[in-house]
Amino acid sequence: MNNKYLILVLVVAVVLFGGWMMSQYISYNSGGKLTDTVYTKDVMDEGMPGKEMMDNETPVTQDVADVKVNVTAQNFSFSTKEIRVKQGDTVELTFSSAGGFHDWVVDEFGARTKRLDTGESETIKFVADKSGTFEYYCSVSTHRQMGMVGKLIVEP
């Protein structure tokens, strides 16, 4: 009889721990945000603050990429070890994880992807506004120290 209660308590503890771990994983991957609210001009009415500003707004154009790069991460390495661009180029980088949990970061340009799991991908854009050779890397755990790095060369 005591063994049944012990087993029941252990099963409940494992289920609760598993649920907690899953909530931590979801919270970590979403940056703590489960939903985002976006207000567009179509849903704003006369009484909402900021409507006047939106009516007088100048259209914003998105940067067109000068250079498009695809980088895939797996087994503590990047598929592309070196990326060459010209200073002032807008770089569009599509990053994919083919194995494991990885991201792509280059500090000097403030460019980084989210941490992605196997099969996920993300596209980011940044302007290479400084010339030089810069290291890009995976910031997950010790991946950088294990050699998960590459070079971004920005030519003047």
Automatic annotation (TrEMBL):
The chain crosses the membrane at residues 6-23. The keyword Transmembrane applies. Gene3D superfamilies: Cupredoxins - blue copper proteins. PROSITE patterns: MULTICOPPER_OXIDASE1. SUPFAM superfamilies: Cupredoxins. InterPro entries: BlueCu_1, Cu-binding_ET, Cu_oxidase_CS, Cupredoxin. Keywords: Copper, Membrane, Metal-binding, Transmembrane, Transmembrane helix. GO terms for molecular function: copper ion binding; electron transfer activity. It comes from the Bacteria. Residues 66-155 form the Blue (type 1) copper domain. This is Blue (type 1) copper domain-containing protein. It comes from Candidatus Colwellbacteria bacterium RIFCSPHIGHO2_02_FULL_43_15.
